[in-house]
């Protein structure tokens, strides 16, 4: 059960949970909140009328469970992920820091995740990196730990080959545990962009106050906090004894060329270092291009294909139709609420509503069907190798399921749908326009019905 919210936050304490084992970012020490997040919460409290009350937990997984169930209203420091977005609202980012790949000191430099290969990788359960790797690098051999300290001990004892961790906490735990055989082998994307996570039941009132307080923190305070905790330099060590022995033996045989070998060797090392830097930049660029490619073809709110991607897929289907004369149908669905029907306002539908409709479409259509948010409150479904009769059945089912969705009923919305089958010498604009006329005919008939184009 969620906590009561009848009192205002000026009268009631804001309960919060932390990651108890992520020092120096966020931690509990003798029951007290310490670390970077604790300093920022003190600053937020000083810049607002909010009063915070700690709800202790024993692990990060438990903290996420508490904030999801409402046993605490917010968590003090975390990254934004699609899974967490289902039950949390996020404040503005107030602290950023890099993530790193930690390995034993006999490991070569790793050029991002693509350079890990078949090595076993450790990651903390529930952290953003665990979700990121499972989504974008599913072939990596992952092993999950409750904390970075547990993962570092496993790395030192050869149970895993690489650990993904946060720079400051990795340095702290390596020194605290006196682990001498570990090194930073590379950087890991994406960097930490940390903010407060608020249970959505409390977000409307709490989120604006937190953002206002974060905006009011002077830049000098941000710099002071970063300098205080960024006090450990990265060291990368290598065993150069085999190389030294080889050089000494070579110098006994060819003394005349010893000086020349040293000069060439130094030049080759510089060249190798530059080559590694270029490889790192290439890897980073490749990962960012993947992200841009996804964003360029998908709607940011629903995750469905966007307008441009739908047009491209439709033109491909039209070319297939012209070559093989296979049937294809188009369904256009649009939502209107009472205000839109009465033309008294132009308030857009909520993001929750759009996500709910997108989910219904994806679970109702076939795998071969293409679903897109075409703009505003309009969704388009293209059905390859589907005649008008089957498309009409699908459209009727979509109208029925969407109309009975909780979010649609809650926002008093009506559903209109138009259906048409592709005809000869017809391009997408004409196909879409003809389907749109059927959609408008559905509206004139009073909504919640799918109409077939002439």
TrEMBL record:
GO terms for cellular component: plasma membrane. The keyword Nucleus does not apply. It catalyses: 2 GTP = 3',3'-c-di-GMP + 2 diphosphate. It comes from Alteromonas halophila. This is diguanylate cyclase. Keywords: Membrane, Transmembrane, Transmembrane helix. Residues 326-454 form the GGDEF domain. Pfam families: GGDEF, SBP_bac_3. It is an enzyme of class 2 (transferase). The keyword Isomerase does not apply. Gene3D superfamilies: 3.30.70.270, Periplasmic binding protein-like II (3.40.190.10). GO terms for biological process: cell adhesion involved in single-species biofilm formation; negative regulation of bacterial-type flagellum-dependent cell motility. SMART domains: GGDEF (SM00267), PBPb (SM00062). Its EC number is 2.7.7.65. CDD domains: GGDEF, PBP2_BvgS_like_1. The chain crosses the membrane at residues 240-259. One of its GO terms (molecular function) is diguanylate cyclase activity.
